[in-house]
Design brief:
This protein is of the alpha+beta class and 265 residues long. The chain has helices at 4-8, 39-46, 62-68, 81-84, 90-93, 96-104, 107-110, 118-127, 161-172, 188-192, 194-200, 231-239, 249-263, and strands spanning 16-21, 52-54, 137-142, 154-159, 181-182, 207-210, 225-230. It contains 13 helices and seven strands.
């Protein structure tokens, strides 16, 4: 499957298709059962040409399981996810089990401090569109490798600020309102999974800007963010490339700037 947008905005990384399926792809990257891993890291691999697959036993971490749509994987989070995201759980970390967990998860004792209180963090978790998809697998693969029998749920672009600006404009180009892109606070995997999954069920889906999760920022180049587009919206945006601002001098000047910057070691 080709993308007109990809060429028009001068992407170096490949758009990534997020596919919910009951068919296991061959030769795909996959975390070992029960092993820790970062979903966003495999998104990066897919943007460089690899295929990755996740199951209910190989989603990497609780946040990844939630983000991919494998149910509420936070329910049994040691010490409470609301404490981990906020002020920590020092009492739990004094127990033998807690000490063992904290040795692998040092932020557990004092918390990541992304929320002021556990109550605020709990409200955030309650507001997430947590879902349990009926399919067995979630697959990340380069969009160009998607065949005619596959329909992505979401297409994810990894883009720099200039390219992000173009995508925001294109997302609003044929719409009658100008709020067709959202930037929710969420884990990186939420913004490429369950949040755009929710948008995909809307009559007027919105695109989702992500990778604002500073826990995973160091896995990506400092100027990259994600732009996750529900598939029906992606098709709409693709159809609007021809004749749009992407062919005019304002964008062409930025496109040339990006080519020059990429040529510098």
């Amino acid at each position: 499957m080709e993308s007109a947008i990809q060429g028009a905005i001068g992407m170096q990384l490949m758009p990534v298709a997020v596919i919910q399926t009951n068919s296991l792809p061959g030769q795909a990257l996959q975390f070992k059962e029960g092993a820790f891993g970062c979903v966003a890291a495999l998104l990066k691999s897919a943007s460089k040409g690899k295929t990755a697959v996740f199951t209910r036993k190989t989603f990497g971490c609780p946040g990844g399981g939630v983000g991919l749509g494998f149910g509420n994987c936070y329910e049994n989070f040691p010490g409470g996810i609301e404490h981990f995201l906020s002020t920590g759980n020092s009492g739990f970390c004094q127990t033998e089990f807690g000490k063992a967990v904290a040795s692998r998860m040092p932020d557990l004792e004092e918390g990541e401090r992304y929320f002021k209180t556990p109550e605020t963090a709990g409200s955030f978790i309650a507001s997430l569109p947590i879902t349990d998809i009926p399919e067995e697998y979630v697959v990340f693969k380069p969009l160009e490798d998607v065949d005619e029998n596959e329909t992505p749920k979401v297409v994810v672009f990894l883009v720099n600020p200039d390219q992000l600006s173009a995508l925001v404009i294109l997302a609003n180009y044929a719409r009658k309102c100008s709020e067709n892109v959202i930037v929710p606070f969420a884990a990186a995997c939420h913004t490429i999974g369950i949040i755009p999954f929710r948008e995909a069920e809307s009559e007027t889906p919105r695109a989702v800007i992500g990778l604002t999760d500073i826990t995973v920022r160091n896995k990506f180049a400092k100027d990259l963010l994600s732009f996750a587009i529900p598939y029906t919206m992606f098709v709409e945006m693709e159809s609007n490339v021809d004749g749009s601002f992407l062919e005019k001098h304002n964008w062409q000047n930025l496109l040339e700037r990006n080519k020059t910057a990429q040529a510098i070691p």
